[in-house]
Amino acid sequence: MRKPIFFILVLLFADLGFAELSKEAVDYRNKGYTAQQNGDIETALVFYQKAASLDPYYAVARNDMGIIYEIKGFSDKAEGEYNKAVTIDPNFAEAHSNLALLYESKKMYEKAVVH
After folding, report:
1. How buried is 32 (Cβ within 10 angstroms: 0-12 exposed, 13-18 middle, 19+ buried)?
2. How confident is the model at residue 25, as a pLDDT?
3. Cα maximum dimension of the chain
4. Cα 31 to Cα 53: distance, rounded to the nearest angstrom
């Protein structure tokens, strides 16, 4: 009987740690968004990367990184981040829209239509 109780306690503590980690990721994403709004895309990218490293399943941070990469002219990196965002959250409309617009700009209409 001790193994199941121990296992449940481990899961409980792991969930608490993950919640704290996700909150920190959200804080970094918000700092990145503020920096982006102020025109500081380099700082924004650093904050978005930190958010994504803290929570690899944070689709919003991935989408935001894609936007910054696209602004900087790194369309392949942007595509990669947008794809990560829609893989994490298949219903993330903004990331799908960003992918569609990126593919349209590359004249990759078949891929654009999917999104």
Report:
1. buried
2. 96
3. 61
4. 15
CB 65 within 8 A of CB 72: no
With vertex at residue 37, the alpha carbon angle to CA 40 and CA 52, rounded to the nearest 5 degrees, is 75
Give the count of beta carbons closer than 10 Å to the beta carbon of residue 2.
Answer: 6
Under 8 Å CB-to-CB from 35, ≥6 apart: which residues? 41, 43, 44, 47
Please give the chain's pLDDT, 115 residues, in tens.
444 444 444 444 444 445 566 899 999 999 999 999 999 999 999 999 999 999 999 999 999 999 999 999 999 999 999 999 999 999 999 999 999 999 999 999 999 899 9
The answer to whether the beta carbons of residues 44 and 32 sit under 8 Å apart is: yes
- Measure the CA–CA gap between 61 and 52, rounded to whole angstroms: 6
Tokens representing residue 95 in the block = 């990331």
